[in-house]
């Protein structure tokens, strides 16, 4: 039976603290309002599919043994399985099935299947025949049955721009329509990206280039999807696909190779020697950083760990120079820390910090290792904002205004040459600290820290623990705890140095 009521779905937001999460989703129809369970993980909101079906009065079948649920609409049946990233749409007219892959898996919690809200909307539109539009901040509006006129609005990709940078190429896919899902693959110098449930005028996207990483672009529509193929030069190494802030556009960063070309390698060999480590004690002087349990100051803990670590390196790693961005309680501007590292020709940059929460005491605990990339989760964004807030103490905070949104992505492309080394060191570091310390690991993450922007070398930022947590604070403010942390980092540096030098022998 055709749906005869209008549907409005909105999110009930809680305060954005580490301990609070969204707890329900309001589904509003002309028949009334119903609240359904939600689950939030790493900034992505998931909702219970069965409860959603009940809220909009749609028939469904649930198999408790296989954990599969099938929603039955007029034109399609939509099937989803727990702990599985695939959605299957089966036409009720000819029984033909289409399978789509979500960028994240579904979850099975409390006997319910939770699906990612933003990534599944387009498939619900196709299955139900209803034009459901997501409107920030967290509102979904039902606008009636999809007609031939409204289907035409699925043509959303309007063009492509290509900008060559020193460290690679930035591609902007311009779109009038929100692109919820996309997949990418690389083979034989061809980078293929498929944008789901959005069409393009393919002829307008085709182009040939005489220089840069991208030599040719070709595009075609496949059903409701757009496939774009980028022919790349042999200088290609990696790529990343990102949603642009404040628009429906997609940004694609295509990175070039780390090293100079063959004729220059011998000449530049010495610059890759692992001979300088830069240690950065976060905050300092008039910038105390976070204030923890009992009034402990983050700046003091950071300096204590860095000085202990520096002594170990100087004693045990002959031939390796240690550079400190500060060795006492002084204030050093963020941009100067990266400048110091570059001027000293650093081969590894380690910035030491402590984590905290707005309210004390807190249950949040553990250390984290961060890489430089624009943060994608609420927690990463919040931590970056807190660590970046040091600029309020600087004489010229406006110098950082350009490091926002797309410009920040462009700046971080400079790190593409070192990213695989940053990732390798962060993995070694996370495992070593987790094995040696009583402080639990919260994993390797990514965020947009200004202090890492300036350092053109493998770089990580360590949050050694939560000084807003009594257990963590007691450990990391203690000289013995700081020594243990320094020893774990030192072991990681030694392991990384061995890996780095083996790679250099192969590459150079």
Topology:
Elements: E1 7-11, E2 25-29, E3 32-36, E4 38-41, E5 44-48, H1 49-55, E6 59-63, E7 68-72, E8 76-81, E9 86-91, E10 97-101, E11 107-109, E12 112-116, H2 117-128, E13 130-135, E14 139-145, H3 148-151, E15 155-165, E16 168-175, E17 182-187, E18 190-195, E19 199-200, H4 202-205, E20 207-208, E21 214-222, E22 225-232, E23 236-243, E24 250-256, H5 262-268, E25 276-281, H6 298-316, E26 321-324, H7 334-343, E27 348-355, E28 367-372, H8 378-388, H9 405-412, H10 419-436, E29 441-447, H11 450-453, E30 459-466, H12 470-476, H13 479-507
Parallel strand pairs: 15-19, 25-26, 25-27, 27-30, 28-29
Antiparallel strand pairs: 1-2, 1-14, 2-3, 4-5, 5-12, 6-7, 7-8, 8-9, 9-10, 11-12, 13-14, 15-16, 16-24, 17-18, 18-22, 20-21, 21-22, 23-24, 28-30
Please provide a written account of the structure.
Helix 10 (419-436) runs antiparallel to helix 13. The chain has 508 residues and is of the alpha+beta class. The longest helix is centred in the last third of the chain and has 29 residues, at 479-507. The protein has three domains: 7-146, 2-Layer Sandwich (Copper Amine Oxidase, Chain A, domain 1), CATH 3.30.457; 152-256, Immunoglobulin-like (Sandwich), CATH 2.60.40.3500; 262-507, Zn-dependent exopeptidases (Aminopeptidase, 3-Layer(aba) Sandwich), CATH 3.40.630. The chain has a six-stranded mixed sheet, with helices on both faces. A five-stranded antiparallel sheet has the order 3-2-1-14-13. The chain has a five-stranded antiparallel sheet with strand order 6-7-8-9-10, covered by helices on one side. It has 13 helices and 30 strands. The chain is globular and about 75 Å long.
């Amino acid at each position: 039976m055709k749906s005869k009521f209008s549907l409005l779905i909105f999110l009930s937001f809680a305060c954005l603290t580490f301990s609070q999460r969204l707890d329900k989703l309001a589904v509003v129809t002309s028949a009334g309002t119903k609240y359904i369970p939600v689950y939030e993980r790493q900034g992505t909101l998931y909702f219970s599919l069965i409860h959603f079906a009940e809220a909009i009065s749609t028939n469904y079948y649930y198999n408790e043994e296989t954990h599969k649920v099938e929603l039955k609409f007029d034109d399609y049946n939509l099937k989803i399985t727990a702990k599985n990233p695939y959605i299957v749409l089966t036409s009720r007219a000819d029984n033909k099935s289409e399978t789509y892959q979500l960028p994240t898996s579904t979850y099975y919690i409390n006997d319910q299947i939770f699906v990612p809200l933003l990534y599944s909307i387009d498939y619900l539109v196709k299955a139900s025949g209803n034009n459901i539009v997501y409107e920030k901040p967290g509102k979904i509006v039902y606008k009636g049955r999809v007609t031939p006129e409204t289907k035409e609005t699925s043509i959303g990709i309007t063009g492509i721009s290509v900008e060559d940078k020193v460290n690679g190429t930035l591609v902007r896919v311009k779109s009038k329509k929100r692109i919820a899902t996309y997949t990418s693959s690389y083979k034989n110098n061809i980078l293929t990206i498929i944008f789901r449930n959005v069409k393009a005028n393919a002829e307008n996207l085709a182009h040939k280039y005489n220089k840069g990483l991208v030599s040719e672009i070709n595009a075609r529509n496949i059903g409701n999807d757009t496939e774009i193929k980028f022919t790349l030069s042999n200088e290609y190494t990696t790529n990343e696909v990102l949603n642009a802030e404040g628009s429906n556009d997609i940004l694609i960063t295509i990175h070039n190779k780390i090293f100079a070309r063959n004729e220059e390698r011998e000449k530049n060999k010495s610059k890759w020697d692992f001979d300088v480590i830069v240690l950065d004690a976060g905050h300092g002087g008039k910038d105390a950083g976070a204030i923890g349990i009992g009034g402990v100051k983050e700046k003091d803990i950071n300096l204590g760990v860095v000085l202990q670590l520096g002594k170990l390196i100087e004693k045990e790693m002959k031939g390796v120079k240690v550079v400190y961005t500060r060795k006492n309680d002084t204030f050093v501007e963020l941009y100067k820390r990266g400048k110091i590292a570059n001027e000293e020709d650093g081969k590894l940059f380690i910035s030491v910090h402590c984590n905290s929460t707005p309210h004390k005491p807190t249950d949040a605990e553990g250390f984290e290792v961060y890489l430089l990339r624009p943060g994608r989760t609420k927690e990463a964004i919040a931590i970056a904002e807190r660590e970046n807030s040091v600029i309020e103490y600087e004489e010229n905070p406006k110098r950082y205004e350009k490091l926002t949104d797309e410009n920040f992505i462009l700046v971080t492309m400079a790190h593409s040459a070192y990213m695989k080394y940053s990732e390798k060191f962060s993995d070694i570091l996370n495992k070593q600290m987790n094995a040696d310390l009583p402080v639990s690991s919260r994993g390797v993450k990514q965020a947009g820290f200004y202090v890492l922007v300036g350092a053109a070398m493998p770089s990580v930022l360590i949050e050694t623990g939560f000084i807003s947590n009594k257990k963590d604070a007691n450990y990391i403010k203690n000289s013995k705890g700081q020594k243990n942390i320094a020893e774990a980092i030192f072991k990681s540096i030694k392991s990384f140095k061995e890996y780095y030098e083996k790679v250099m022998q192969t590459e150079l």
